[in-house]
């Protein structure tokens, strides 16, 4: 879609912001969480996995043609505030999730995943709390694939608490 392509000026501005502003505002505390306004800022959670984060608007990865950098261990809080994370794609195809593992202190709330081209989970292994989340990822294919885990779920493996959350992922 040509009208969605970024101009050279937009690309420079995005690159500058990535280098200088990991988050829109906040200091990562519970009282002043890091605010995420742009898709590239979501991947910056990996630098502060034990901090508090709040998503300020829908994050459309497809608009910026960005892939997502998987976060191995999340120990903090992610408040989605009902906003959508759209078009996630990870070049690490075996770990298509926001987080590989959430520990017992992790809280993820109010996040909606909308992944129309890839099966994506909120976490591969949940040991914390996930609430009020929705996953609507799906994968179109004419070939048959053998899936080795429950990709496209809220949590592929759940050892924690999941409440008031739903999943409508399909292949």
Give me some keywords for this one.
171 residues, alpha/beta, six-stranded parallel sheet, five-stranded parallel sheet, 3 helices, 15 strands, 13% helix, globular
Instruction: Give the biggest sheet.
Output: 6 strands, parallel
* Low-confidence runs: 142-150
Biggest sheet strand order reads 1-2-5-8-11-14
- The averaged pLDDT comes out at 82
Rounded to an integer in angstroms, the radius of gyration calculated over CA atoms is 16 Å
Q: Please bin the fraction of helical residues.
A: 10-25%
Which secondary structure elements does this structure contain, and how are they paired or packed?
Layout: H1 8-20, E1 34-36, H2 39-43, E2 52-55, E3 59-60, H3 61-64, E4 71-74, E5 77-79, E6 84-86, E7 97-102, E8 107-109, E9 112-114, E10 121-126, E11 129-131, E12 134-135, E13 155-158, E14 161-163, E15 166-167
Parallel strand pairs: 1-2, 2-5, 3-6, 4-7, 5-8, 6-9, 7-10, 8-11, 9-12, 10-13, 11-14, 12-15
Describe the fold and architecture.
It is built from three helices and 15 strands. The protein is α/β, with parallel strands linked by helices and 171 residues long. The two termini are 25 Å apart. The strands form three sheets. It has a six-stranded parallel β-sheet.
């Amino acid at each position: 879609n040509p009208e969605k392509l970024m101009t050279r000026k937009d690309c420079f501005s995005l690159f500058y912001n990535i280098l200088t502003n990991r988050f829109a505002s906040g200091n990562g505390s519970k009282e002043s969480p890091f605010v995420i306004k742009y898709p590239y800022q979501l991947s910056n959670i990996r630098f502060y996995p034990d901090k508090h984060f709040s998503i300020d608007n829908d994050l459309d990865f497809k608009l910026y043609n960005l892939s997502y950098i998987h976060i191995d261990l999340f120990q903090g809080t992610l408040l989605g505030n009902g906003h959508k994370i759209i078009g996630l794609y990870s070049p690490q195809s075996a770990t298509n999730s926001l987080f590989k593992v959430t520990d017992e202190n992790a809280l993820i709330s109010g996040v909606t995943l909308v992944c129309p081209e890839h099966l994506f989970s909120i976490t591969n292994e949940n040991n914390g709390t996930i609430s009020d989340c929705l996953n609507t990822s799906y994968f179109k294919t004419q070939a048959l694939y053998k899936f080795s885990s429950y990709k496209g779920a809220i949590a592929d493996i759940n050892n924690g608490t999941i409440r008031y959350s739903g999943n409508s992922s399909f292949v």
